[in-house]
Design goal:
Blueprint (H helix, E strand, L loop, with lengths): L1 H20 L3 E6 L7 H16 L3 E6 L2 H10 L6 E2 L2 E2 L3 H25 L4 E5 L6 E5 L2 E5 L2 E6 L5 E6 L1 H9 L3 E5 L1 E3 L5 E3 L2 H12 L3 E6 L14 E3 H9 L7 H13 L4 E6 L5 H7 L6 E4 L2
Helix pairs in contact: 3-4, 6-8
């Protein structure tokens, strides 16, 4: 009986959050260990299905870097990175689309549908969903003028077809988006999944953006988890070198979306069972939330 009462209390605790987010959109960037571990994959599918059934509209943007590297290795194509970004020539772009759109996207859609949801897979090329342009990156050194680096078909988002996503959500579908954009020239562009998720969240006026990662969240100087911080706090932590490395672009993404109208952005440990539900439906949540100002 005590166990049943505890379950009932959990449901009651979730009620205010169901009421708050009913009819709203939550954008989830799905990546890291949560895409590899079979139990975590199952939990993720069940989490987004439950969200949909209680009236919340999840929209998923997924990554797939390790899967791309695996196929490149099999094809004996050596991956090349500049400033942490994959140099994407035409041959590599073919592999990126093959893996992200043809394999990873369909696996996620199939998993959600298998467990009772209604997911539909999309590339950014479908319906001009993710419009893009070639990303320009400058390399700066102390003893030389800035140099423009050609990353090939690496893009940045210039627009999102929000009407398409809204239409699908209104028909009870869960959109699952591969981070491939399309340029005005009709060419496909490889885009960082965090950037796509942020642009989608801003376009849809999402209630939340969740970035699933393989870390607990943002840590302070003593290694403790920071559960909440403002954009100004985040700027100071970056300046002090506490937020560094691969966490910087994720924090930048979160700051950009809250400045563009999304109420909260969260960096969430995707290795935690049911991390999505814990973040959306509990008081304490998991990971780190970033809010204005």
């Amino acid at each position: 009986m005590e166990e049943l009462i505890a379950r009932a209390k959990t449901l009651v605790e979730a009620l205010p959050y169901i009421r708050e987010f009913y009819g709203r959109t939550v954008v989830i960037k799905y990546g890291g260990h949560a895409m590899v571990d079979e139990e975590l994959k199952r939990n993720f599918a069940l989490d987004v299905i439950l969200m949909k059934y209680v009236g919340i509209n999840p929209v998923i943007v997924h990554g797939g870097g390790p899967q791309i590297n695996h196929l490149l290795e099999r094809l004996k194509i050596k991956p090349n990175y500049v400033q942490g970004m994959r140099v994407t020539d035409s041959e590599t772009m073919d592999v990126v689309e093959m893996v992200l759109v043809g394999k990873v996207n369909k696996e996620i859609v199939g998993l959600i549908n298998f467990h009772g949801g209604k997911a539909v897979g999309l590339s950014g090329r479908d319906g001009d969903l993710i419009r893009a342009r070639k990303m320009k990156v400058m390399k700066e050194t102390a003893d030389a003028p800035p140099e423009l680096i050609d990353l090939g078909r690496v893009g940045e988002v210039t627009g999102v077809n929000g009407d398409l996503l809204t239409s699908l959500s209104s028909q009870s579908f869960i959109p699952v988006i591969a981070p491939v954009g399309v340029g005005t020239d009709g060419q496909a562009y490889n885009i960082n999944a965090d950037l796509v998720a942020g642009a989608v969240a801003a376009e849809l006026g999402a209630a939340k953006l969740l970035l699933l990662t393989d870390v607990a969240g943002i840590l302070n100087a003593d290694g403790g988890l920071i559960s909440s911080l403002t954009c100004k706090d985040a700027d100071k932590l970056k300046k002090d070198g506490i937020i560094k490395g691969g966490m910087i672009p994720k924090v930048n993404c979160c700051q950009n979306v809250v400045k563009n109208g999304v109420a909260k952005a969260h960096i969430v440990d995707g290795r935690t069972e049911h991390a999505v539900l814990l973040e959306v439906f509990t008081r304490s949540g998991v990971g780190t939330e970033i809010i204005k100002p």
